[in-house]
Design a protein that fits this description.
This protein has 251 residues and is α+β, with helices and mostly antiparallel strands. It contains ten helices and six strands. Helix 1 packs antiparallel against helix 8.
């Protein structure tokens, strides 16, 4: 396989809107059942608003602005880490390296549905099942190339990107918003998954019970709240963010 780094004209996607209807439509098209859907998370602190989110929450997609504070933290944390090289059926978590511009929403969505209980719900023979089967034995660079060349994935993404409530930017626009995924792995650990990082980030043991999900108090303290607290304490200032959670459908 050719080295993706050798590609002189990087592929770019129209950014996905952080819209639960858009995300749900995309996962159903890829091969997840109607019993799973994405839902808006209107608050991380108000129990009454959190109660509207169907549980268990299998994954959480966080969208946030890329600030200088975040970039400094990312570079500092990654500086002591080696590049992830995991692959194979014994891999604790499936991680995808992002090489397609403006595809962080798609990468986040793939991280949400290719790990934890959602992975076991992917329909046999679906485009996602075939893609995942090909991806599992590959190292991260080869996995990235697989995504880069997948026509089925590109077509599904294009269809979803056109369904947002707001006018979509062009594929080559500079976009300052970024998606990361928090997901509970099979071993009960909470993972932060971001295709721009050097690999998956183990944020600690969450628990093995169904109630120990990504929106439980512990799940948020290890994951999304810790993420946002770093920005706040560092004086990042710009704390505009939004979240959608993957969980049981309301239909």
């Amino acid at each position: 396989m050719a080295d993706p780094k050798a590609i002189t004209s990087p592929k770019a996607f129209v950014p996905l809107e952080n819209n639960p209807e858009v995300m749900t439509s995309l996962i159903h098209q890829l091969g997840l059942p109607p019993s799973l859907a994405f839902h808006d998370v209107y608050s991380l602190t108000d129990p009454s608003l959190l109660s509207f989110v169907p549980r268990p929450a299998l994954a959480l997609l966080l969208v946030f602005p890329i600030t200088s504070t975040y970039e400094k933290f990312r570079q500092s944390e990654d500086s002591s880490r080696s590049e992830y090289s995991g692959s194979g059926s014994s891999e604790e978590i499936v991680w995808f390296k992002q090489t397609i511009r403006n595809a962080c929403g798609l990468i986040g969505l793939l991280h949400a549905v290719c790990n934890g209980p959602a992975r076991g719900m992917i329909a046999e023979g679906s485009s996602l099942e075939r893609l995942l089967k090909q991806a599992i034995p590959l190292k991260p660079v080869e996995r990235a190339e697989l995504l880069y060349k997948s026509q089925a994935l590109e077509a599904a993404h294009q269809g979803a990107a056109a369904k947002g409530d707001s006018a979509a930017p062009s594929a080559n626009d500079a976009v300052d918003l970024h998606f990361v995924c928090f997901v509970k792995g099979e071993g009960g650990r909470l993972w932060e998954l971001d295709g721009r990082r050097k690999g998956p980030l183990d944020r600690g043991h969450l628990g093995n019970d169904e109630g120990d999900d990504v929106l439980s108090e512990k799940g948020m303290e290890l994951g999304v709240k810790a993420f946002l607290k770093r920005e706040e304490e560092a004086g990042g200032g710009e704390l505009r963010f939004s979240c959608v959670a993957l969980g049981p459908s309301l239909d």
